[in-house]
Amino acid sequence: MQTRCCDGRSRTATELAAVGSISASTASAHLRKLELSRLVEHIRSGRHRYFRLSGPEAASALEALFQVSAKNLSAKNSPGFRSSAPNHLRFARTCYDHAAGELAVRFHDHCIARHWLERREGAYVLTGTGEDTSPTLFVIPRVFTMEVGNLDIASQPIDSALDTVKGNLWVLNKGPVINSKRGAVAVINLEQKKLLNFIFVGDSPIAIAVAAVPPPNQRRLCVVLNSGGVVSAIELDSMEVIANIQVIANAVALDISPDGRWAYVLHLNNLLIGNNINGFLSIIDMTAAKVVGGISVGRAPTRVVFSLDGQFAVVNNTGDGTISLIDVKTRKVSAVKVGGDSVTSNPQEVVFSQKNFPMWTANSGSRNASVIGKDMLAANIDLDLNPMAVAINSSGTRSFLMGPKETLMTIVVTAEGRPIQKTISKMSGVAGNVEAIATTPDDRGVIAIHSDTNTMSVLETKTLGLRAVISLPGAPLRCLITNDGKFAVVLCPKTISLIEMESVLPTGA
Description:
By secondary structure, the protein is mainly beta. A four-stranded antiparallel beta sheet has the order 7-38-37-36. A four-stranded antiparallel beta sheet has the order 8-9-10-11, with no helix packed on it. A four-stranded antiparallel beta sheet has the order 12-13-14-15, with no helix packed on it. Strand 14 and strand 15 form a beta hairpin. Helix 1 (13-20) packs across helix 2 (24-36). The protein is globular, with a radius of gyration of 25 Å.
């Protein structure tokens, strides 16, 4: 049962009983003794308890028992401890932040024999020979996966948002929940890797957003949208729903301004499906908790995003090849044509830089990208791929674009929002669909998630060198990097994975 917890995940007594081929009551008795010995601990969610190893020290003790077991097995007629761990776990596994098992031991011995590693003062150091062999050979990602789908809810994560003040990740899950269709929000502290709470919200949830920097003495809010046109306002500190606000039907997306004053809900104007449907924004005053106005936007919109300072909001209109740029204070709308003359440019994604401009769009219909400057004019850049995802550095002067079934990354360097250089590089060792990409806050790295290979790749921005390809427990849906750059978060069906970025992109590397 302890071996099963070596991956850092939490599991119920019933799950651990099945692993150990014992009854649930016997497993519970063993777990009580292990808790008293401080080898395992539990967290409570609703009526269930979830057990995990108490920390790296417990994992190290378990690894020591494996070594004793291996020695006993090599001795004839030895009556000593024999592990019941499955053969595949004895051969290769991870244990918290390191590789373990027979394969890891072989790799360790191979590195020592070739003088790639040396042991000095109780620690391993990379020798000059090891550095010359491969600077990325010893990258072992530290990945922590939480199975959010089996905590009272048979659900899967569909969206997430960060509370940067407390370092909590708010994960929106879709139902069913205890034989109903209600959605739920899981609140997870990233540093502690601990589930803090579940908050039940409306039926068939769609999106979640968090106000990043509310003014002093103002409630810090999270908003959740469901398909019935209800926006639930949740206070971040108390984790309680404080208001449910009804908006019009056909809602598809929402965002909240960084100061928490305004929430914009994006709708399609009628029930027809196609590119001729005009979009509409409902404006919610979050202080008064009511709808106070609306704004018409372009055709077939799919998402709405506030700028980092809350001065602007933008809607991508995939049906007419435009974006709607909204001045939040005056509610003035500027329609900006992107991708050229074609109405089928299909701007899939729009991103603001830290200073709002330049901003970027990835136009999958016209195989190009657009850069919008302060003059509200778009400069279009032809690409050698069909861009489905875009990320930019903090200043907006470099963009990274990828497309489905592509192995190329395109980088465009701009000055004052205008293109001056285009570079295409082969992403050696990476293939498959690119679902989403993100850049680190210090502009040193880029991550990309691949939906058909169930992997995440990590690259250095200067050289576009591949640092790591990380296996994920399922097809990744979304990814983000925390504001402090410590964690990459990947949403997969029924799980989220937290990757410690220092383990794959060390400072000074």
